[in-house]
Amino acid sequence: MDTRFIGKSVQRKEGREKVTGTAQYVDDLTFPDMLHGATVRSAIPRGRIRGIRFGDGIPWDEFTIVQAKDIPGKNCIALLIDDQPCLAYELVNHPEEPILLLAHPDKYLLEEARRAVRIEIEPLPGVFTIEDSLARKEIVWGGDNIFKSFLIEKGNVDEVWASADLVIDGTYETGAQEQLYIEPQGMIARANEAEGVTVWGSLQCPYYVHKALVKLFGLAKERIRVVQTETGGGFGGKEEYPSMLAAHAALLAWKSHKPVKIVYDRAEDMVATTKRHPSRTLHRTAVTRDGKILAMDIDFTIDGGAYETLSPVVLSRGTIHAAGPYNCPHVRIRSRAVATNAPPHGAFRGFGAPQSVFAVERHLDRVAQAVGLAPDELRRRNFLREGDTLPFGQIVREKIDLAGLLTRALDLSDYHAKRARFQNENPSRAIKKGIGFAAFLHGAGFTGSGEEYLASEAFLEATPEGRVRVFAGSTEMGQGANTVFTQIAAESLGIECDQIEIVQPDTADVPNSGPTVASRTTMIVGGLVESAARAMRETLLRSELLKPGYDAGNFADACRQYIARFGALKSFVKYEHPADLHWDDVTYQGDAYSAYAWAIYVAEVSVEMRTAEVRVDDFVALQEIGKVINPTLAAGQIEGGVAQGIGLALYENVVWQQGRMMNGQMTNYIMPTSLDVPPIRVFFEEVPYGLGPGGAKGIGELPLDGTAPAIANAIAHATGSDIHRIPVTPEVLLEMLEQIHA
Q1: CA 205 → CA 38, 211, 240, 263, 561, distances in Å?
Q2: Do the Cβ atoms of 278 and 345 come closer than 8 Å?
């Protein structure tokens, strides 16, 4: 089908403002009489608060000071449950837990004051590893340290082990990862009893913040307003944490009766905010001698930190993706999120799937080795096909061709020739080469009944000048959402892209379109924009003010006449769940996602054997994501995700000590630079999805899933080592190399 804008790389909607420096980020904003805010935090991981002392030499009477007792509503950060306090008041459960807030006009004196506050805490024993939490060495949350657990079963794995030709076991671990958005967390609040509470900030989910502030202040919903400022990256790190920061700024503003700004520096942002959940996965796989997988028994655990936050939904996605894109008759997946005394872990691009996908893809290379098959041949013999059933009971209805996708990716990377050449040349080389791949899927949208529960909304409004304004709660944070919405609306209305205006998310104006997460923005909210645009067009055609074959000028004339004759021209839509999709939240069975993206990633690496340094030399990323709305933006999403995946695989090692991040600086938390990122060759296989806008699916999280296992498999090919933990820093790889010769 011919399109004017879908499938075209139109100009980025907010690009001019960003490159000219006129875009307004939160730290660019200022208000009359504005104060600066700061947070006084716990220095220990777990303990009982015994007192607070304010040091000498500080004019404390000039400061606004907020403690838990000053909170007008409930002392919690409302999310899934209310277990996390806004300010600790009796117990602290992790390092850097907020206890007290300060505000002052002079931000330099404010920092001196923060250092002068002494929190007296009686230490209590803590838990700092998954193993110790599971062993219940201390109970630090609930009755068993378990935030959430799942069980997914297909067939009966226990009946298979005795008759299997081979059973292969493996244990795999992934570390925490910092989101490292370019703009740190920041909020400005204005609050008083007469006007209510308004916050402006860098965030992904305005209505998450809105929900938290309603409960914290005990105010009616209409008295809370949340405005998204220009946001310099999020990657999940600005999904739930901005509720905490907004709460702190708003409490200081409420007590001082003045606007308050809090913007973290990089060090505070790194040590105090959420990160990717560390994980441990145990695999046991039964297989025939000819490589047919008979059973997969998977035990998946993530470290949630001190409070629940989003751990149950991170665990859910990781659990559902744990068996990969393979057809296996007997599958059991047991999973749980456990509590430790580290700052709460939270959302990060991929949302649990990168952890479990790393484990299954690394494990299947080991299974292939055990049965004497090439890694690609083992997968070909077990790939899902249309009509197969996933472990949670969903029947694959999409027309997928994973074998064809694999063939294309391996051809693009020259995989077979390179693999043979590297094996021949490596014995005589100090720098050994390897090539590996990962096959994976990623569900788009909220899991199971999530989208049905959210019931997202959006609307369009036309102006008398023929411009159309898009009102949605989805946020632009660099990923291109505003541009994609513009393309979808312009295509559906038959007008020009410059006639579309995307309204900045403000809970006083835009409806709740759900959070900007879960690879849902284009597919779900973009679908709402498409439906609303089509309905507006039909309204004008039915009124006969707009005739078929119209141009942009005719459309503007029709809008002006319609508004003059009938009043406002608006088109409201609400998400309607596909009638043929069903999910049971109790049994965790059914249609987990309405659509999946499918991908094969191939990595080529060099390993310096004396220093155990790894370099990625080439990377091929091939994916089927439905119709590509904007090729440049889509490729950018993949390239950025692969770069983050390289960091997860090789560099980004969070060093923990008693629950505290010890390397919370850019000098010693190592992320890949442009010199560490290889050419990333991005390719798309377009199979339009019938329920997606313009045929599109989700794309944002996909590239994080497959990058690390592809690199790990390439390192294993180069060195012969059993790569079972990431990041594969030189120290980790040296340890694994030593095990070969032990």
Answers
A1: 23, 10, 8, 18, 37
A2: yes
> Which stretches in the chain have pLDDT values below 50?
none
Per-residue confidence (pLDDT) for residue 339, from 0 to 100: 99
Helix axes 241-256 and 206-217, enclosed angle (nearest 10): 40
Asked if 673 contacts 274 with a C-beta cutoff of 8 angstroms, the reply is: no
**How far, CA to CA in Å, does 705 sit from each of 354, 634, 650?**
4, 16, 15
DSSP, residue by residue, 275-288: -PPPEEEEEEEEE-
CB distance 641 to 351 below 8 Å: no
Q: Write the CA distances from 96 to 185, 355, 509, 531, 668, integer angstroms.
A: 15, 26, 35, 46, 19
Q: 674: Cβ–Cβ under 8 A, 6 or more apart, which residues?
A: none
Structure tokens at 665: 């600086």
Given a contact cutoff of 8 angstroms between Cβ atoms, the answer to whether 624 and 403 are in contact is no
Structure tokens belonging to residue 166: 């081979």
H-only helix segments in 433-551 = 450-454, 481-493, 526-542
Q: Can you state the angle between helices 402-412 and 415-425, rounded to 10 degrees?
A: 50
In whole angstroms, what is the distance from residue 727 CA to residue 648 CA?
A: 6
In angstroms, rounded to a whole number, what is the distance separating the alpha carbons of residues 343 and 273? 7
Write the CB contacts of 147 (distance below 8 Å, at least 6 apart in sequence): 141, 304, 308, 311, 312, 315, 336, 337, 338, 339
Amino acid sitting at position 667 = T
Q: What is the model's pLDDT at position 653?
A: 98
In angstroms, how far is CA 363 from the centroid of its own chain?
24
| CB-based contact 663:724 (threshold 8 Å) | no
On the question of a cis peptide bond just before residue 515, with omega within 30 degrees of 0, the verdict is no
Q: How far apart are CA 83 and CA 87, in angstroms?
A: 12
Tell me the CB-side half-sphere exposure of residue 96, using CA atoms within 13 A: 21
User: Rounded to whole angstroms, how far apart are CA atoms 480 and 485?
Assistant: 9
Three-state SS at 376: helix
603 contacts 412 by C-beta, under 8 angstroms: no
**Residues β-bridged to residue 47:** 92, 123
145 to each of 137, 272, 321, 380, 673, how far by Cα in Å?
10, 21, 24, 40, 38
